[in-house]
Design brief:
single chain; about 550 residues; alpha+beta; 7-stranded mixed β-sheet
Length: about 550
């Protein structure tokens, strides 16, 4: 008697980053990555639309999202075609992850305003990228009014609202670009816009809204009936209160299908009709899934910025200063915890771009330095502080320079600064009773810079592991697609089958740990003096006064 093996199936993960779109074709049986392609955004500066008069502005053009999907998925499928056993007829699902919070103003049909001719070059009508901090003062206002009015909306997002998030960007748009705000029937997060476009469920009243963006960035929680009340929003701006009725009331997790791929898109990329598309989520949260997240594991997704993700059960407490404690935002049925740093890869790129040296050269020279040899210490706030201060009006600081300070020394100081910031996050999470038993790092930096991983292990005095996949966000999206399509019965089963870590573990070096313990105490001293208003040695005003003076000078 013979038994036939089950037919192989494949899913596609599509990862929308800050500068490019990546598509990954994955075997659902074991997570083997058989086809990949990257398409760099064609517009803006490396995909980001900037304003030289305002360093806090960062937008993207929605046309890049459409072109990126078509190019990257088509090319990834062409590469996968060379794998024995692969067939496009065996592709069963597509998953999508994006940056966030990246809200997009849309018309009543769900079309991004930036795709309409009259708004094509209007920066305020484009997608408001996660790293756009133009709503910093609105974020402060949201925090202050929520606290003063006794509203509960900050409880699940760390106690402080951020300029990186949904409401601060929308409120800022209403004030600086009223014509765009008036033309926008609604606003849709990029993580929801892409699946809506792919499935034809693009209208604001039909597009499935993912709990990931809603819970972490838009103060959505079922404890208070979903989004913040119109009464609260009216204290910010009556126009924003009116917008609430044109947003959403229900959310879903990534184990839900957004619909099936539109036939014309399927034909364009070379797929059959009827393929399921999963509801979207943020890159970090699906990157955590692609890294094998489970209770007790902290996953660091390191890219231009860094997100730290954990999951826990219903007993997971609210944690001040993190970016959210949200049911179902990572793995359905579990509580998702998000923290992070606003600049990591971007911060390393700063000395590289100033010096014209490659990251490889700077890494090699920085690796020759002993801990503490440069005499430098830095604060990692060149793009603000995401966790635990949640203050995007903080800025970078480098202390200890001499006339002989070299660029490799500065480069290493930037790496060390982000490692100190990581330790602050770990200590805050554990302070509130959530044990960090294992750390897994993923992303390009983890792949390319052993020096960075070793410094992190030494500063935190903990082993650091790296994900088996170099493309964990796209892999996590493919995992979600495998659950939605029925290739796996649960996320636990899919994660066990499709993810893993590498054999190499970066263990702490005791001699380096001792030096970094001393340096970390200096970092904490600077962190508290410049970042905490109530600190006895507070220099809280310095960075904010500098921003105010710059604004006056450039007005």
């Amino acid at each position: 008697m013979s038994t036939s093996m089950p037919e192989r199936s494949f899913t596609i993960g599509v990862d929308y980053g800050t500068n490019s779109v990546r598509a990954l074709v994955v075997d659902t049986a074991d997570g083997a990555e058989i086809g990949t392609a990257v398409w760099n955004y064609a517009t803006g500066t490396a995909g980001v639309w900037l304003d030289p008069k305002d360093p806090h502005l960062a937008r993207q053009h929605p046309q890049d999202y459409i072109d990126g999907f078509l190019h990257a998925v088509r090319d990834a499928l062409l590469e996968a075609a060379g794998t024995p056993g692969f067939s496009i007829d065996r592709v069963v699902g597509i998953g999508v992850d994006t940056t966030g919070s990246t809200p997009i103003p849309v018309d009543a049909d769900g079309l991004a305003l930036g795709l309409r001719p009259e708004f094509a070059s209007n920066l305020d009508a484009l997608a408001w990228l996660w790293k756009d901090h133009t709503g910093a003062f609105e974020a402060v206002e949201i925090t202050e009014k929520a606290r003063a009015g006794g509203f509960p909306y900050l409880e699940k997002c760390g106690g402080v609202y951020s300029s990186e998030w949904f409401w601060s960007k929308i409120l800022h748009c209403a004030r600086v670009a009223p014509e765009v705000f008036a033309a926008a029937h609604s606003w849709v997060e990029m993580q929801d816009y892409i699946p809506g476009w792919l499935t034809g469920n693009q209208r604001p009243d039909r597009v499935p809204r993912g709990i990931c963006a809603a819970g972490h960035k838009a103060m959505y929680h079922r404890d208070w009936g979903g989004l913040p009340s119109k009464a609260f929003l009216a204290t910010l701006d009556p126009r924003v209160a009116e917008l609430r009725d044109r947003l959403y009331s229900d959310t879903v997790a990534v184990d839900t299908a957004a619909g099936t791929l539109l036939p014309w898109i399927a034909r364009e990329v070379g797929l059959p009709d009827g393929i399921l598309v999963a509801v979207g989520a943020f890159d970090a949260h699906l990157g955590a899934i692609g890294s094998g997240i489970k209770p007790g594991t902290l996953v660091k997704i390191m890219g231009t910025s860094t997100c730290d993700i954990m999951v826990g059960d219903i007993s997971t407490p609210d944690i001040p200063g993190v970016c959210g404690v949200v049911p179902g935002s990572v793995i359905p049925g579990m509580i998702g915890v998000e923290a992070g740093q606003s600049a990591v890869g971007d911060l390393f790129n700063w000395p590289a771009s100033l010096s014209g040296q490659s990251h490889g050269d700077l890494n090699r020279e920085a690796e020759m330095l002993a801990p503490g040899e440069s005499g430098l210490i830095a604060l990692d706030w060149n793009n603000g502080n995401r966790t635990i201060l949640v203050d995007q009006l903080l800025s970078g600081l480098l202390v200890g320079q001499t006339l002989y300070t070299s660029m490799p020394e500065i480069y290493r100081a930037m790496i060390e600064a982000t490692a100190y910031g990581t330790r602050m996050i770990i200590e805050r999470i554990e302070e509130f009773g959530v044990p960090v038993q294992e750390i897994v790092v993923c992303g390009g930096i983890a792949e390319k810079s052993p020096l960075t991983m070793q410094i992190y292990a030494d500063v935190c005095n903990r082993p650091f592991k790296t994900s088996r996949s170099a493309q964990t966000c796209a892999l996590g999206s493919a995992v979600a697609a495998s659950v939605v399509a029925g290739a796996h019965a649960s996320f636990g089963e899919a994660v066990d089958a499709m993810t893993g870590v590498k054999d190499r573990v970066f263990a702490p070096n005791p001699a380096a740990v001792a030096v970094y313990e001393r340096l970390f105490q200096l970092y904490r001293q600077l962190h508290d003096a410049f970042g905490r208003k109530a600190h006895p040695d507070a220099m809280y005003n310095v960075m904010k006064d500098l921003i105010a003076i710059r604004k006056e000078a450039t007005a």
